[in-house]
Amino acid sequence: MNRLLIFCLFLIISFSSYAQILTGKVYDTDTKKPLQDVDVYFDGTSIHTTTDKEGVFKIPIYTLMTTNLIISHLSYELAVFPSPFNEIPEIIYLKKEYQRLSEVTVLPDIFSRKEKLAIFRKYFLGKDKAGKACKIINEDDIHIYYDESEKELKAVSDKPLIIENNYLGYRVVFDIQEFTLKFSWKNTLNEKFLKWSYLSGKSMFSNFETINDKIEKRRKEAYMSSTNYFYKNLVENGLKGTKYELFRNGLPISSEKCFIIKDTLSMKMLEIIPNDLIAEERIDLSSFKVKQPYLRVTVLLDQHGRQQSDIVFNADKILVDAFGNTTQFDKIIYSGLWGGQKVGCMLPLDYRLEE
After folding, report:
1. Of 196, 131, 132, which Cα lies nearest the Cα of 339?
2. Residue 198: burial class (beta carbons within 10 Å; 0-12, 13-18, 19+)
3. What pLDDT is attached to residue 284?
4. What is the reported pLDDT for 303?
């Protein structure tokens, strides 16, 4: 009986050591008064809350994550905290945002709004079943323009986009930071001339009120085809006993020859072993400046090779949290299946499979 009691107490204490409540206050910089109804959330997750009339917020967290804490209000500048567990101030001051995108003059171009929206939806929401099942509620807030000199289609928005994802059962609030489609040919939106696409932003997820078995099954399938599931298996068991196979330069290779996995206090450290044998031309996109040797691996996601992705690591080490999220995400480039995944097949970063 005593042994059982001691064991139960150990479980409670161990669990509590990871649990904490993140608290803070949000004030106006100029008036020094509290701000109510400010969105406070962990980027890309379903963990969110709003401030009360005193400007106070409280978020319970049960594990450390690699994602940023976002403080957001339509009338104020966004506040981002990369290390909220040890760097967040007691009072967060927000500055008024006086410049709105609607005040910026966007010159007319050769394409109609209908044409531009059609290709935007494909490369923002996705061309798969999940993407096609999504609906952008406030599509009128999107400003899309074609830069003829750069051969680029760009999109910005006055407000965060509200997306109803009927395929996965989520309402997603997505704040676009950058959306660019780069074409190799001038004055065309034909996809066969598309060189690359780039999307970045901040997102917050909420569950639909009713989630049926079909949606739960779709979520599970989406998760098991995600990068999160891959990294989680990589750091926990080196991909042993999984469906994944690694290839480098067209030949099978073990994860031990590509990565060194180390424990940290709360996450796993993934050290990248550089592939000095690779002689491909360095990738040079505006958002990805490669200045060091990198590792390129191909991941087969099924035994028949019908689903695969290439990963280019432009960092020597990354951290992986309990959900399979990574740091240095802007230094990791995907092509193939993972490169084609868009907002429509996104799950919250705190999603985990039911045991």
Report:
1. 196
2. middle
3. 44
4. 56
Q: Give the pLDDT of residue 193.
A: 95
What value, to the nearest 5°, has the Cα angle with vertex 132 and ends 128 and 138?
135
Q: Report the C-alpha gap between 89 and 106 in whole angstroms.
A: 38
Q: What is the 3-state secondary structure (H, E, C) of the chain?
A: CHHHHHHHHHHHHHHHHHCEEEEEEEEECCCCCECCCCEEEECCECCEEECCCCCEEEEEECCCCCCCEEEECCCECCEEECCHHHHCCCEEEECECCCCHHHCCCCCCCCCHHHHHHHHHHHHCCCCHHHHCEEECCHHHEEEEEECCCCEEEEEECCCEEEEECCCCEEEEEEEEEEEEEECCCCCCCHHHEEEEEEEEEEEEEECCCCCHHHHHHHHHHHHCCHHHHHHHHHHHCCCCCCCEEEECCEECCHHHCEEEEECCCCEEEEECCCCCCCCCCCEECCEECCCCCEEEEEECCCCCCCEEEEEECCCEEEECCCCCECCHHHEEEEEHHHHCCHHHCCCCCCCCCC
Rounded-to-integer distance, Cα 114 and Cα 142, Å? 12
Question: What are the tokens at 108?
Answer: 């007319």
* Whole-number pLDDT of residue 266: 78
Residue entry with tokens 């995907």: 334
> Which pLDDT value is given to residue 286?
44
Per-10-residue mean pLDDT, the chain, length 355: 35 42 93 96 93 94 82 92 79 82 61 96 95 96 93 93 97 95 94 92 94 95 92 94 89 91 88 63 43 70 74 90 87 88 93 77
Angle at 70 between CA 328 and CA 217, to 5 degrees: 75
Residue partners of 59: CB distance under 8 A and separation at least 6: 21, 22, 23, 40, 42, 47, 48, 49
Position 99 scores a pLDDT of 58
Q: Which residues contact 195 (CB under 8 A, 6 or more apart)?
A: 182, 183, 184
